[in-house]
Amino acid sequence: MNGGPRQDPMTDIDSAGLAGTDTSLIIVDDDKAFLQRLARAMETRGFAVETADTVAEGMRKVDQRPPAYAVVDMRLEDGNGLDVIELIRRKRPESRMVVLTGYGNIATAVTAVKLGAVDYLAKPADADEVFLALTRDPTEKAVPPDNPMSADRVRWEHIQRVYELCERNVSETARRLNMHRRTLQRILAKRAPR
Questions:
Q1: Banded pLDDT at 7 (limits 50, 70, 90)
Q2: 108-111: which pairs have CB atoms within 8 A and are 24 or more residues apart?
Q3: d(CA 55, CA 63)
Q4: Residue 9 lies in a domain
Protein backbone atom coordinates (compact mmCIF):
# COMPACT_ATOMS: atom_id res chain seq x y z
CA MET A 1 0.00 0.00 0.00
CA ASN A 2 1.35 3.41 -0.94
CA GLY A 3 1.92 5.70 2.05
CA GLY A 4 2.02 8.85 -0.10
CA PRO A 5 -0.73 11.46 -0.27
CA ARG A 6 -3.98 10.41 -1.94
CA GLN A 7 -4.58 12.00 -5.28
CA ASP A 8 -7.87 13.83 -5.64
CA PRO A 9 -9.89 12.19 -8.47
CA MET A 10 -11.06 15.68 -9.44
CA THR A 11 -7.51 16.57 -10.60
CA ASP A 12 -6.46 13.57 -12.72
CA ILE A 13 -5.17 14.98 -16.00
CA ASP A 14 -6.56 13.75 -19.30
CA SER A 15 -7.27 16.18 -22.12
CA ALA A 16 -7.71 13.67 -24.96
CA GLY A 17 -10.43 14.58 -27.38
CA LEU A 18 -10.15 18.38 -27.02
CA ALA A 19 -7.21 19.26 -29.26
CA GLY A 20 -7.97 21.86 -31.92
CA THR A 21 -11.57 22.46 -30.89
CA ASP A 22 -13.46 25.20 -29.08
CA THR A 23 -12.97 24.22 -25.44
CA SER A 24 -15.22 26.85 -23.83
CA LEU A 25 -17.07 25.29 -20.88
CA ILE A 26 -19.52 26.79 -18.42
CA ILE A 27 -20.19 25.09 -15.10
CA VAL A 28 -23.31 26.22 -13.25
CA ASP A 29 -23.67 24.90 -9.69
CA ASP A 30 -24.54 26.55 -6.36
CA ASP A 31 -22.27 24.23 -4.34
CA LYS A 32 -19.27 26.58 -4.41
CA ALA A 33 -16.68 24.04 -3.18
CA PHE A 34 -17.77 21.48 -5.80
CA LEU A 35 -17.90 24.22 -8.46
CA GLN A 36 -14.30 25.29 -7.76
CA ARG A 37 -12.95 21.70 -7.67
CA LEU A 38 -14.71 20.73 -10.90
CA ALA A 39 -13.58 23.96 -12.62
CA ARG A 40 -9.93 23.30 -11.69
CA ALA A 41 -10.21 19.66 -12.81
CA MET A 42 -11.75 20.62 -16.16
CA GLU A 43 -9.06 23.29 -16.74
CA THR A 44 -6.36 20.61 -16.27
CA ARG A 45 -8.16 18.57 -18.95
CA GLY A 46 -7.87 21.42 -21.47
CA PHE A 47 -11.16 23.31 -21.08
CA ALA A 48 -11.44 27.13 -20.94
CA VAL A 49 -13.78 27.31 -17.93
CA GLU A 50 -16.36 29.91 -16.91
CA THR A 51 -18.35 29.38 -13.71
CA ALA A 52 -21.67 30.60 -12.35
CA ASP A 53 -23.41 29.80 -9.07
CA THR A 54 -26.93 30.97 -9.98
CA VAL A 55 -29.32 30.47 -12.89
CA ALA A 56 -29.33 34.25 -13.49
CA GLU A 57 -25.53 34.47 -13.68
CA GLY A 58 -25.34 31.36 -15.86
CA MET A 59 -27.91 32.75 -18.30
CA ARG A 60 -26.11 36.11 -18.45
CA LYS A 61 -22.77 34.43 -19.25
CA VAL A 62 -24.37 32.09 -21.82
CA ASP A 63 -26.08 35.07 -23.47
CA GLN A 64 -22.72 36.90 -23.74
CA ARG A 65 -20.72 33.88 -24.97
CA PRO A 66 -22.52 30.59 -25.66
CA PRO A 67 -20.13 27.76 -24.70
CA ALA A 68 -19.17 24.64 -26.64
CA TYR A 69 -19.65 22.59 -23.45
CA ALA A 70 -21.77 22.96 -20.31
CA VAL A 71 -22.18 21.22 -16.95
CA VAL A 72 -25.32 22.44 -15.21
CA ASP A 73 -26.80 21.50 -11.85
CA MET A 74 -30.53 20.83 -12.05
CA ARG A 75 -31.57 22.57 -8.85
CA LEU A 76 -30.11 25.92 -7.95
CA GLU A 77 -31.14 28.36 -5.23
CA ASP A 78 -32.69 30.79 -7.71
CA GLY A 79 -34.32 28.34 -10.10
CA ASN A 80 -34.00 25.38 -12.43
CA GLY A 81 -30.81 24.60 -14.35
CA LEU A 82 -32.93 23.42 -17.30
CA ASP A 83 -33.50 27.13 -18.08
CA VAL A 84 -29.74 27.47 -18.69
CA ILE A 85 -29.73 24.29 -20.83
CA GLU A 86 -32.61 25.63 -22.91
CA LEU A 87 -30.84 28.98 -23.50
CA ILE A 88 -27.61 27.23 -24.54
CA ARG A 89 -29.58 25.04 -26.98
CA ARG A 90 -31.14 28.15 -28.55
CA LYS A 91 -27.85 30.09 -28.73
CA ARG A 92 -25.54 27.21 -29.71
CA PRO A 93 -27.39 24.05 -30.80
CA GLU A 94 -24.23 21.94 -31.23
CA SER A 95 -23.11 22.52 -27.62
CA ARG A 96 -22.51 19.36 -25.53
CA MET A 97 -24.26 19.61 -22.18
CA VAL A 98 -24.38 17.46 -19.05
CA VAL A 99 -26.96 17.89 -16.30
CA LEU A 100 -26.00 17.13 -12.68
CA THR A 101 -28.50 16.48 -9.95
CA GLY A 102 -28.89 15.05 -6.49
CA TYR A 103 -32.42 14.06 -7.46
CA GLY A 104 -32.27 11.05 -9.79
CA ASN A 105 -35.61 11.29 -11.58
CA ILE A 106 -36.51 9.67 -14.90
CA ALA A 107 -38.98 12.38 -15.95
CA THR A 108 -36.42 15.11 -15.33
CA ALA A 109 -33.73 13.15 -17.19
CA VAL A 110 -36.03 12.82 -20.20
CA THR A 111 -36.70 16.58 -20.14
CA ALA A 112 -32.97 17.33 -19.91
CA VAL A 113 -32.22 15.08 -22.90
CA LYS A 114 -35.07 16.58 -24.93
CA LEU A 115 -33.58 20.02 -24.27
CA GLY A 116 -30.25 18.80 -25.61
CA ALA A 117 -28.25 17.39 -22.69
CA VAL A 118 -25.94 14.56 -23.79
CA ASP A 119 -25.92 12.95 -20.35
CA TYR A 120 -27.46 13.13 -16.91
CA LEU A 121 -25.25 12.37 -13.90
CA ALA A 122 -26.24 11.93 -10.27
CA LYS A 123 -24.24 13.99 -7.78
CA PRO A 124 -21.67 13.63 -6.53
CA ALA A 125 -20.16 13.04 -9.96
CA ASP A 126 -16.40 13.10 -10.26
CA ALA A 127 -14.39 14.91 -12.92
CA ASP A 128 -13.67 11.71 -14.85
CA GLU A 129 -17.40 10.96 -15.24
CA VAL A 130 -18.11 14.55 -16.30
CA PHE A 131 -15.20 14.58 -18.78
CA LEU A 132 -16.26 11.27 -20.34
CA ALA A 133 -19.87 12.44 -20.64
CA LEU A 134 -18.80 15.68 -22.35
CA THR A 135 -16.34 14.10 -24.79
CA ARG A 136 -17.91 10.72 -25.58
CA ASP A 137 -18.69 10.02 -29.22
CA PRO A 138 -22.43 10.75 -29.65
CA THR A 139 -22.92 7.40 -31.38
CA GLU A 140 -21.31 5.52 -28.48
CA LYS A 141 -23.54 4.21 -25.69
CA ALA A 142 -22.86 5.33 -22.12
CA VAL A 143 -21.06 2.81 -19.94
CA PRO A 144 -23.31 1.44 -17.17
CA PRO A 145 -22.33 2.76 -13.72
CA ASP A 146 -20.12 0.58 -11.50
CA ASN A 147 -22.40 1.10 -8.52
CA PRO A 148 -25.90 2.10 -9.68
CA MET A 149 -28.53 3.22 -7.18
CA SER A 150 -30.53 0.41 -5.64
CA ALA A 151 -34.24 0.16 -6.41
CA ASP A 152 -34.96 1.28 -2.83
CA ARG A 153 -32.77 4.35 -3.32
CA VAL A 154 -34.44 5.22 -6.65
CA ARG A 155 -37.85 4.96 -4.96
CA TRP A 156 -36.67 7.10 -2.03
CA GLU A 157 -35.23 9.75 -4.42
CA HIS A 158 -38.53 9.87 -6.32
CA ILE A 159 -40.54 10.32 -3.10
CA GLN A 160 -38.15 13.08 -1.96
CA ARG A 161 -38.48 14.86 -5.30
CA VAL A 162 -42.29 14.79 -5.22
CA TYR A 163 -42.19 15.93 -1.57
CA GLU A 164 -40.01 18.92 -2.55
CA LEU A 165 -42.24 19.75 -5.55
CA CYS A 166 -45.25 19.72 -3.19
CA GLU A 167 -43.41 22.26 -1.01
CA ARG A 168 -42.93 19.66 1.76
CA ASN A 169 -46.66 19.19 2.20
CA VAL A 170 -47.07 15.60 3.41
CA SER A 171 -50.79 15.36 2.63
CA GLU A 172 -50.39 16.64 -0.93
CA THR A 173 -47.35 14.41 -1.53
CA ALA A 174 -49.23 11.34 -0.25
CA ARG A 175 -52.17 12.17 -2.51
CA ARG A 176 -49.96 12.56 -5.60
CA LEU A 177 -48.07 9.34 -4.85
CA ASN A 178 -51.31 7.48 -4.13
CA MET A 179 -49.90 6.51 -0.75
CA HIS A 180 -51.29 6.54 2.78
CA ARG A 181 -50.18 9.65 4.68
CA ARG A 182 -48.77 7.66 7.64
CA THR A 183 -46.80 5.39 5.34
CA LEU A 184 -45.28 8.45 3.70
CA GLN A 185 -44.43 9.97 7.09
CA ARG A 186 -42.58 6.77 8.09
CA ILE A 187 -40.61 6.81 4.82
CA LEU A 188 -39.71 10.49 5.24
CA ALA A 189 -38.53 9.88 8.81
CA LYS A 190 -36.03 7.20 7.73
CA ARG A 191 -32.54 7.74 6.37
CA ALA A 192 -31.91 7.32 2.65
CA PRO A 193 -31.27 3.71 1.62
CA ARG A 194 -27.95 2.91 -0.07
A1: very low
A2: 108/74, 108/82, 108/161, 111/82
A3: 12
A4: no
Are residues 87 and 165 located together in one domain of the fold?
A: no
Q: What 8-state DSSP symbol labels residue 136?
A: S
Q: Are residues 45 and 119 in the same domain?
A: yes
Contact 130, 71 (CB under 8 A): yes
Strands 79-80 and 75-76: antiparallel
Q: What is the pLDDT of residues 109-155, one digit of tens each?
A: 667 777 777 777 877 788 888 998 888 876 666 666 666 667 787 78
Radius of gyration of the chain from its Cα atoms, rounded to whole angstroms: 18
Residue, of 140 and 105, whose pLDDT is higher: 140
Measured distance CA(190)–CA(97) in Å, rounded: 34
Domain of residue 35, residue span: 24-135
The verdict on 109 and 179 lying in the same domain is: no
Distance (Å) of CA 70 to CA 8, 58, 82, 175, 191: 22, 10, 12, 37, 33
In a domain, 182, yes or no: yes
Average pLDDT along the chain: 81
Total domains, the chain: 2
Diameter of the chain by CA atoms? 59
pTM of this structure: 0.67
